[in-house]
Amino acid sequence: MISFYTFTLIMITPLFILTVILIYFAVLFGVSYFTGKEDSNATFFTANRNSPWYLVAFGMVGASLSGVTYISVPGWVEASQFSYFQVVLGYMFGYFVVAYVLLPVYYNNRVTSIYEYLETRLGSQSHKAGAFFFFVSRVLGAAFRLFLVAIVLQQFIFDAWNIPFEVTVTLSILLIWVYTKRGGIKTIVWTDTLQTTLMILAVILSIFYINQALGWNISDFFGSSELKQYSDVFVTDSFLSRNHLVKSFIGGAFITICMTGLDQDMMQKNLSCRTLKDAQKNMVVFSFVLVIVTAMFMYLGALLFIFAKKEGIEIPLLDGTPKTDLLFPEIALNSSLGIGVAITFILGLIAAAYSSADSALTSLTTSFCVDFLAIEKRPKKTQEKLRKNTHIGMSVLLVITVIIYKHVLDRNVIDSLLTVAGYTYGPLLGLFSFSIFTNYKIKDQYVWYVVFASVVLTSIIGTLDSTLIGGYQIGYELLPLNGLFTFVGLILIRSKKN
Question: pTM value?
Answer without folding.
Answer: 0.75
